[in-house]
Structure formats: structure tokens, C-alpha cells
Fold this sequence. Notes:
By secondary structure, the chain is of the alpha/beta class. The chain has helices at 14-23, 38-43, 45-62, 78-102, 162-165, 182-193, 213-226, 326-341, 370-376, 391-396, 422-435, 440-444, 455-462, and strands at residues 2-9, 28-31, 106-109, 112-117, 120-124, 132-140, 144-146, 174-178, 197-201, 228-230, 233-241, 244-251, 265-269, 271-274, 278-280, 313-315, 355-357, 363-367, 381-386, 401-406, 412-418, 465-468, 480-481, 496-501. The strands form five sheets. Strands 1, 2, 3, 4, 5, 6 and 16 form a seven-stranded mixed beta sheet that branches. It has a seven-stranded antiparallel beta sheet with strand order 17-18-21-20-19-22-24, with helices on both faces. A five-stranded mixed beta sheet has the order 14-8-9-10-23. β4 (112-117) and β5 form a beta hairpin. The N and C termini lie far apart (61 Å).
Amino acid sequence: MQEFDFLVVGSGSGLDVANAAVNQGQSVAVVEKGRLGGTCLNRGCIPSKMLLYHADVLETIESAGEFGIDASVDDVDFAGIVREVNQDVKADAESIRRGLRSSSDHALFEAEGRFVDDRTLEVSGGDDDGVQLRADTILIAAGTRPTIPPIDGIQDVEYLTSTEALRLESPPEHLVIVGGGYIAAELGHFFGTFGSDVTIVGRRPMLLPEADDEVAEAFTDRFADRFTVYTGHEATAVSASDGQVTAEAKPYEYGDGLLEDAQPVTATGDALLVAAGRCPNTDALNLEATGVETDARGFVETDEYLRTDAEGVWALGDIVGEYLLKHSANHEAQAVARNLFGDHPQPVDYDAMPFAVFTSPEVAGVGAREADLRDDGREYATNTYRYEDTARGAAMKAEGFVKVVIDLEGTILGCHIVGSDASTLIQEVVVAMKSGTGTVQDVRSAVHVHPALPEVVQRAFTGQFTRGDNHDHDGHSGHHHGDDHQHDADHHHDHGDDQQHDPDHQH
């Protein structure tokens, strides 16, 4: 038995709290069975966004003709790109490992840890096999892994998850993706840009179901112009033959029922990517030996301070299932450190938690979606402004829009963007919601550089708002979006009535 003041399971954002414990003079143990740095560094946001930037560069060159520039791509070293990104990631992980190994304040156990009781773990594997570790305080930050849905035949075919997809050294000829969320969208964009035919099969009526409906609809239509997209379909079976993988999907009943004219479909390609969400790693921790409770999906349950039901045991990050985002995990790590070592514990503040999807077009959002407010019967107003109606947007030939949602007093409830640099543009709204008075006036009164792209955000906050309709609405009709499907990529519908609301009086 080895005893410590503080122990963390996982080496992602939990390391921030471990370092805070070291600064308090505590002895610290870190238990990690994989590469140091957690999901984000090794198989998530860092390698994916590095690869996606290469796709953005290629897309920019290939679209140069729109600007009267004759440019062509002679060659793409796809394998070299992937190797360089993964080598950089591996080097960063090894740097973290060396730092912990050389530290006199951290004890690193590169092994799997399983609970023996509330504050005791036994490690298995590596040089420390069988060692038991006990700590006064334990932090569970062990993350998530890709979910593999119960599809008939899935265990009998070769398939990719995001982990393997990020390491492929040649793009598939035809990639079939099961799933319609941000991982499916980002990897579809990446491989599609580098030459793969892409078919996406998603259960929801639109891709990116976590986005505002208006944004999700625009995004789905844009993707349908590039790829074959089947929304409202659930993959039910997969099979392999002659180096090809075939997925069968049937219409999926969601919300008000089946999508209009929905029929069973099949999709065949030389690679299958399963991007159907993520599940928590709690099943590997033997939490049954503790008082730590999990919800029906297996995520660790905590109170508003991120304390579990077991005395002295805390949790943060993807494994608590609040927001599966690295910046959320970092935010939670700050909260845990403050609540552990500060004088006045404070609940975690999840207000104005933004998200971004690094596709083409980009998508970003923060706060309430219109459908949520409508379903809750809350009064609200919206305004939308298009990229191409600004000088910079027109110069970029950018398509997209910014949608603002406010209450009738002018308080910002949410903002949703589809278009170039959405991940950057959303940030001033986040700051306004958190650091200012949180009203329309915070954005509209700030001087914006002209002509720069943030003007599209300013104008979305400056225009005349339309009061929302709180009555029941029918769901979006879904259909097969084939490669030959033509649709105005950014067409969107006004859900409001004719009542106009001007929040100028709110200061």
C-alpha cells in the first residue's frame, strides 16, 4: 500500500488539479493506462484540428478560381501529413510523461486502476502491477471512448472509430460514416476534401443535432451538396465482401415519427467509420466497490461542486457527461481546484458554454436554441444576419449567417453561427454574455473594425428582432440528400410572427 494526499485517475484536464495539489504541498499520484495527455491530445481535438487545417488549406487552393486566381494542386503527401501530426502529438504526450517522471512531487503509475474501496485503487499492468494506492482525495477524470452501437454484424467486419481514422495514412476511396454528430461531420469533411467519396447515415432529422435547428438545417443542406447524406436513418446491419463494407439502414422514428417518404437504404464503401457518440470509461473502474453513483448512461453523478456521492471523491471532464468538450473539462478543473483548496466553494458555472465544429462551413453556438425556448413556452425574439451582406463577407464570397436569440428585455439567450470562422466569431458573444451586462447593447455598442468579418455579428445584434412563436411546430421533414440534390445552402425560415421587438432601451 502506497499512500498519497491526492490521486487522479486520468491524465487530461485532471492534471491541472493535480498540479494545484502539488502547489499546496500535497503528495500526488497520477494513474494513466494510456498515453499521457488524455483524449484531447492523443485522439481527439488536437490531432483532428491539426489535420482539418490541412484540409482547409487544400480547400482554399482549390477554390482560388472563384477569385480569378489560376491555382492547382500538383500533389498531396497525405501519409506525410498524418505522420507529422501524430508524431507531434506523440512528442507532446512523451513530454508530459517525462515531466511527471522527473518530478519529485508526482508519482506516475502507467497502468489501469480499479477501485478497491472509496479511496483505494489497485493498479494492474506495467511495473506497478498489483500495487494498491490510497489517497485522502481522489479525482476521477478517466474520460470516454467511442460508442459502438449494437448493429448486426458489427463484430464481424473491420471498422474505424475516430481513434483509428485520425491515423489512416491514405484516404479511403469511399468512406461510409455511421453517425451524424460533430465527429462524423469533421471526419467527413477531412476525408472528403482529400478525395474520398463520403456517405453519412444519421438517425436524427438533421446533421449536428446539438446545434440550433436553423443552423443544423443549413449545414445539412451544405453537406448534402458535397456528400451523400441519409438523415433520419438508423444503421441496423453491416456486412463485408470482397474488401467492401455495406451498411443497411432503416428509417428511424424520432420525435413526431418517421421522416417524410423515408425508405430503407444501403451504403457500400471500402471503409466504415462508426461515429455514434462516446461512452464513459466508468465500467473499467470497478465503481461498484465505492459509493460513487452513475446515471443510466454510466456517467459519474456529481453535485454542483463536482463532488461524487463518496466522501473525498470528485470527478470532472467527459466522464461526468455535462459537456464533452475540452474547454469544459478545463473549466471544471479550475472549479475543482478552487473548491478543494479555496475557502469558499462555488458551484460550477456552465452558463455561456460555447461549442464549435471545424468543418466547411464551420458551426458554432452558445446558449439557448430557439427550439428549447419554444418548447419551454418562453418568450423570446430572434434576428439573423447573413455573411454576404457585409463587405468582408462579400469579398470572401462567404455564405452563412449569425442568428441571435434574446429575451424581450434584450438579454442575450443564445447565438448560433454557420459560416467561415464561426469558431472565432462566437467568442465575442460568449464574452458579452459572461463579462458584460449580458445584453444586446454589449455587442451593438462596441466599435467593430470595418470592413472585418465580426461586423456580421454586430449587425445580427443591431437589426430589428422578430418575436418568436411559442406555439407547437411540426418537426423538419427529412429526405435523402444525394450528391445531385440542389438546395440554397443557407436558406432559413423565420419562425417568428409579425410582431417586432426593439431591445434598444436595455442598457
